[in-house]
Structures are given as structure tokens and as C-alpha cells.
């Protein structure tokens, strides 16, 4: 596996390389900041294709996305990808953030709409002078020839999508606007990811779609997260984890085993890589990587 700061994701994948990437979020306090940098340091030897830093729903963590991606660019060998959302920003503000990122040496952006302030599934109201859809943010970023753009895709459709075909057309719109790659929300079944690839291809969204992986380390918190996007944990996953409901260590081990099998199935199905939602901890991701015997 190689990564090269100068290459776009499309160029990397065209070379036959698969993309392995890790996602972090901006922490709220000093203890969280230390945990984040520990995870980044422990994962750097795995030479991921890129690492991405999410953009908060509001408040001070937003500035930290710029600061963290800047520090990753300056102090590590890693390629940083900064997430950016349309929530609460005018177009001028978005342009100013893009200026800051560009001058910090951050050229890869995940262009997202963001969830409504009331949470997923609540009504979305665009900001006055701002943007309504992620495809518009892609167009805004596309005006900067040096910037490379990723977008979100959803294995079971976005929570507000009219149907799965409309969901695929939205991905095509983002591709048409200039997105070079997509990363999915966490995949729960390999078959959902394969169906998404088929829909994307039929809709003409001709971009690499990297599946998102989040191992189940705690059943209740994963159930809450999945319900947030009005999905359900597959029954076969529940059946494997329920016997360990009272044994957190055994449950964690089974969660890692399930995630490893899912990764293998996704790569076998032709996934161009894997994107790990690390929650700012490295251990589970390292265990899955080691299980997969991905060479670095
Ligand atoms: P869009 O592509 O704009 O889609 C949003 C909704 O609008 C969909 O229901 C879509 O069907 C509909 N739609 C789009 N275009 C049209 C159109 N032309 N006409 C009619 N309907 C349309 N959130 C954060 O706040 N910060 C993050 O850092 C972050 N990172 C993420 C990373 C990944 C990989 C993923 C999968 C999600 C991430 N999210 C993040 C969550 C994301 O912002 C939400 O899921 C959001 O609700 C949708 O964002 P989007 O970019 O897919 O929006």
C-alpha cells in the first residue's frame, strides 16, 4: 500500500492501489486532544492513504478541524482530509474556511451537507446566503483547481432520500459537480454495499466508493447509532452478539471478528479500500488491520 500526498484518490485507485483510511473527530477538551494524538501516532505506521477529520455540528470544535488537519499536514507523514458542512455557514464563510485550509496545506475536502441542527431526520433549513445540498458545496470547492473532493454515500440510502434510486441520483449529482471519491456511512452488511455500487453504476455515478467500517465494541451504543439513521442491526449480527451481552470483553472480541469478516467480504466484492471510523482510538482498527494481514 502506498500513499502520496500529490496524487488524487482517483489517481491512486487508478494505479491499482486500494485506499485504507482512518477517521477522527475534533475533541472537546485537552484529555480528548491527547487521546486523538495518541491514536494518530499509533496508526501512522500503518501508512493509511489518508486520515480524515470530521466537522462539528456547531461551536468551537469547528475551528479545531482546521487546526488538527493543519497539524497533521505539518507534523506527520499522513495525508489529511478535512470534512466541511453547509450547516450554519454562508457561502462567503465557506470560502474563508477553504482559504484557511488551503493556506494550511490541506487540499482534500469531504464535502457534506451536514445534519439538521435537530438531528438526522428532522427538517433541514438552509442558512440564508448558504447552500442547500452537498452537491453545491462540491461545485463551490471545484472552483479551486488544487482541491480534491470526497462526498458521502449511504449503503441503505440517506434517511431523507425519497427512495434508493433518488439517493443514487444525488450521488451522481455530486460526481457531476466534481467529487472524485465517496465514503459510505458505516456498512452493516456487505450485500448493502454491493447493491449501492450497482445503483451508483446505473445512475452514472462513476467514482470509487469506499465502504465505512465501525466495529461493534458495545452493543447498546451501536444500536443507538444505527437507530439514529433509522436502520437496524442485521439479525445475524444480533444473534452472534447477544450471548455475550453480560461479558463486555467477549462481546468486543466477537465485534472485532464480525468487522474483520465484513472487511474481507467487502474487499472480495471489489471494494476499492476501507475507511475506519476510529472514534479517536486506535486499538480496534489495529486489531482488524492485523487480522486482515494488510501489509504496510
Ligand atoms: P446531500 O448529498 O446534500 O443529501 C442530503 C439530503 O438531501 C438527502 O436526503 C438527499 O437525498 C437530498 N438531496 C440532495 N440533493 C438533492 C436535490 N438536488 N434535490 C432533492 N433532494 C436532494 N456530518 C457532519 O456534520 N460532519 C461531518 O464531518 C460528517 N462527515 C460525514 C462523513 C461521511 C463519510 C458520511 C457518510 C456522513 C457524514 N456526515 C457528517 C453526516 C452527513 O452530513 C449527513 O448524513 C447529512 O444528513 C447528509 O449529508 P450529504 O453530504 O450526504 O448531503
Descriptive account of the structure:
The chain is an alpha/beta fold and 296 residues long. The protein has a single domain, classed as TIM Barrel, CATH 3.20.20.220. The chain is 45% helix and 15% strand. It is built from eleven helices and eight strands. Strands 1-2-3-4-5-6-7-8 form an eight-stranded parallel β-barrel, surrounded by five helices. It is globular and about 55 Å long. The chain starts with 8 loop residues before the first helix and ends with a helix. 42% of the residues are buried. The mean pLDDT is 93. Residues 54-55, 57, 83, 85, 110, 112-115, 120, 133-135, 152, 158, 160-161, 166-167, 170, 173, 183-185, 212 line the site of flavin-adenine dinucleotide (FAD).
Brief overview:
The chain has 296 residues and is an alpha/beta fold. The chain has helices at residues 9-14, 30-43, 61-75, 91-103, 134-142, 164-177, 190-203, 219-228, 235-241, 248-268, 283-292, and strands at 19-24, 50-53, 80-85, 108-112, 148-153, 181-186, 209-213, 273-277. It starts with 8 loop residues before the first helix and ends with a helix.
